[in-house]
Amino acid sequence: MARRILWASLVLTPIVLAGRYAFSFGPTALFILAAAALIPLAWLIGEATEHAAEHTGHGVGGFLNASFGNAPELIIALFAVADGLPEVVRGSLTGSVVSNILLVLGVAMIAGGDGKVDARSLRWQLAAVFGAVALILIPSALSWQGSSRERHSLFLLSLPIAVVVLAAYLVVTIRNLRVHRAAQRGEASDSAWTLRKAIVVLAAATVATALVSETLVHTLDRFGHAVGLNQFFIAVVIVAIVGNAAEHGGAVVIARRGHTELATEIAITSSMQVAVFLIPVVTLLSWLVGPGLPLSFRAIEIVTMAAAAAFATFVIWDGRSRRWEGFVLVGAYGLAVVWYALA
Fold first, then answer.
1. Residue range 30-52, pLDDT digits in tens
2. Number of domains in the chain
3. Of 39, 196, 205, 245, which has the fewest beta carbons less than 10 angstroms from its beta carbon?
4. How far are the Cα atoms of 13, 123, 224, 238, 264 from residue 334, in angstroms, in the given order?
């Protein structure tokens, strides 16, 4: 019954697009409809990823889910740069790193219970997050000295750092994919989709998610004003969670089915991709759509990204997922949200 409801709920996507472009629905109605439409899309991405993982293994399956799931974030970030909203871009990227490491990983552990995780893969990826944050700290610290965070010299300094971080992403990703490709894996079950069908569904669901997410973000500003939330909180919490809805839902659905290795791989790979791929790519592409976006993050953003990676490293170090550890991670995310609200 639940699967039928989710399949039927996919009709919300064309309703959202028609409501925005054809019938001019109000921002509140669009916000609610778009949020609801992301739920079945997240489930569909998780479903397609699980079928793809039967052919590719858990590591590559997690990489596919994170890659397709993060595509909407890149689109949303570039739209925000074009609209002159650099704080929203940096805040949403920070929130994506923190929410994937703490919230998604934590909820996946709660949903999946005790199980195995691929500690070797996750440690490498969390180390990459640490390295990216350390390099981003250089222009960020300079921006804290009282000068404008948007000055051109900071952007010029950010460019070589973005290139180095992006190169590190390629090294880590190629290494992980080689490790997972060499790992032993069983044959796909008879009920599994073909790999081609799974990837086509992933691509179609990603496009739909990008369109719906952009609509949701388009209405967030007025929604935030209506409920009294500042722009930074909207970006670091609401936009980040919305932009990652696909990974959030997909990881939890997969964890509930007992596949803790794949679910945890999705959460950490998604976070690593944001820190080591999306952040530098958005910086490098920003000058094509608007003013250059320097890597000048707030101190609270740097601290919470580094702390989240450290916390997750401690949790997954022994290669086991435990439900109580999931609750601890979710609690840590709650504390981060409180700090964001007070910032």
1. 888 888 888 788 778 877 877 77
2. 1
3. 196
4. 30, 23, 19, 13, 19
